[in-house]
Amino acid sequence: MKKLIRIFLSCLVALSSVPALAQWDKKPYNEWSEKEATKMLNDSPWAQTQIFSDLSQLTGNARLASGASRIGEEFHVNFRLRLLSARPVRQATARLIEIQNKGELSEPLEKQLRAFAAADFPDYIVITLTVDSPRPSNHLQQATLMLAKITTADLQNNTYLLAGNGQRVFIKEYQPPRNDGLGARFIFPRLVDGKPFITAETESILFHSEFGGEGATASTGTNTAQQTGPSASSSITPFSNFVLNMRYKIKDMTFGGKLEY
């Protein structure tokens, strides 16, 4: 199953720009099209993309005089943030695996996928993070290495969920990427003082995290995305800090008549 998930994620990167008029809540997930499942995982109320772009090589009189192509000097890294604890995200994952294997799955794997799609998360909110890029770059390598190296202790003071009423809950545990292809996991408590941190009355939640490598020189303000829509952009330079800010609108997160997060 881990191998299948890795294969499906590699296909997902290639399909990330495919538009789709999703009908997620109007039919069973095992009837979703490939476009609908892909959009769920890259651009939906439960899954969004923050794009970091390095345009530093586009400046300089020498480059302007050379006449060299400037398009090849742009570098982009996509940070895919997904609410794994939300059922529709896991359903889309299961559906894409099924589509890409043309329904030819063993019975044990089919049972695993159904259990994965239907599982409950009564205690935790789990956000996963994967990174990809249109082409290989040092930036992508840097981001990948940092996700493997950072620990819960590195994030415990600067990674949190912020509700619209100002209430904040800090990360409980960070898990680096495994071989399952689902990415790094940011785990938060679902209950605060015995009550759900998120309810239908919550306007929105903001996921915020900061991490960087050795030699980081850029300020966090330089890298923080100003957009809060489905796709936000930031500028980065080599060995910079990465600052993630992604807002989720709670009113859009009802699925099957239930608030899913």
- Unreliable residue runs: 13-21, 60-69, 214-230
Determine the structural class based on helices, strands and strand pairing. Answer: alpha+beta
Question: What's the N-to-C terminus distance?
Answer: 24 Å
Order of helices and strands: HHEHEHHEHHEEEEEEEHEEEE
Percentage of β-strand residues: 25-35%
Query: Portion of residues in helices?
Result: 25-40%
Kindly state the number of beta strands: 14
pLDDT averaged residue by residue: 80
Number of domains: 1
Largest sheet: 6 strands, mixed
Using only CA atoms, what is the Rg? 19 Å
Q: What coarse outline follows from CA principal-axis ratios?
A: globular
Task: Kindly summarize this structure in a few lines.
With 261 residues, the protein is α+β, with helices and mostly antiparallel strands.
3D architecture notes:
- This protein has helices spanning 2-14, 34-42, 61-66, 87-100, 107-118, 138-149, 152-155, 220-223; strands at residues 47-54, 75-83, 124-132, 160-163, 168-170, 173-175, 184-189, 191-192, 195-196, 204-212, 231-235, 241-249, 254-255, 258-259.
- The chain is of the alpha+beta class and 261 residues long.
- It has one domain (2-215, 235-256).
- α1 (2-14) crosses α4 and α2 (34-42) crosses α4 (87-100).
- Strands 6-7-3-2-1-11 form a six-stranded mixed beta sheet. It has a four-stranded antiparallel beta sheet with strand order 5-4-10-12.
